[in-house]
């Protein structure tokens, strides 16, 4: 039991330290363009896959369709993205970056590339290949864990739902 508690405490500490540092760094970069990191990821995906649909965008960025639509709405309003209806099915809308969107995506991409170059400055006796291999294996293991972990339901919502049915 004490070992499980120690693993849990290490997980929380590492999560806070690693995730917060990386998230803050990414948000500082994208925030200069009044974008969230999540919105930038949508821009990047639209840039990489010409004529992508909202459903494909949600799948590719591992988010729900409604969450992707919310983030996309701001990108459309700010003139970064445009929609075009498919010729044979007007209900299907393709997403494309506008010239403004392409410029911003490229600017942010370049800043991220510059930031990535500083990874080599982190003191380590590990080679770049070893570090990349570790992250790849860790990501794969995390994906397996995520598929197999128990899914928890929020009891408060379940109680409210049951109360509303009574």
UniProtKB/TrEMBL annotation:
Q: Does the keyword Ion transport apply?
A: no
Q: Does this UniProt record's set of keywords contain NAD?
A: no
Q: Which domain of life is it from?
A: Bacteria
For this UniProt record, the keywords arranged alphabetically read as follows: DNA-binding, Transcription, Transcription regulation
- PROSITE patterns in UniProt: HTH_MARR_1, HTH_MARR_2
Q: Which molecular function term from Gene Ontology is one that the record holds?
A: DNA binding
Q: Which GO terms describe its biological process?
A: response to stress
Q: Which SMART domains does the annotation name?
A: HTH_MARR
PANTHER family to which the protein is assigned, alphabetical: HTH-TYPE TRANSCRIPTIONAL REPRESSOR YETL, TRANSCRIPTIONAL REGULATOR, MARR FAMILY
> What name does the UniProt record give this protein?
MarR family transcriptional regulator
């Amino acid at each position: 039991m004490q070992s499980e508690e120690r693993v849990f405490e290490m997980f929380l500490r590492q999560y806070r330290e690693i995730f917060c540092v990386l998230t803050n760094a990414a948000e500082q970069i994208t925030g200069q363009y009044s974008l969230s990191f999540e919105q930038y990821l949508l821009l990047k995906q639209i840039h990489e896959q010409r004529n992508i649909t909202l459903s494909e965008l949600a799948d590719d960025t591992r988010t729900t369709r409604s969450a992707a639509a919310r983030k996309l709405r701001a990108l459309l309003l700010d003139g970064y993205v445009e929609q075009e209806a498919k010729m044979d099915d007007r209900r299907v809308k393709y997403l494309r970056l506008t010239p403004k969107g392409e410029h911003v995506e490229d600017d942010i991409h370049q800043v991220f590339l510059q930031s990535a170059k500083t990874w080599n400055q982190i003191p380590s006796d590990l080679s770049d290949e070893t570090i990349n291999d570790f992250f790849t294996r860790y990501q794969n293991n995390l994906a397996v864990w995520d598929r197999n972990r128990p899914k928890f339901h929020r009891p408060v919502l379940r109680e409210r739902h049951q109360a509303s049915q009574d």
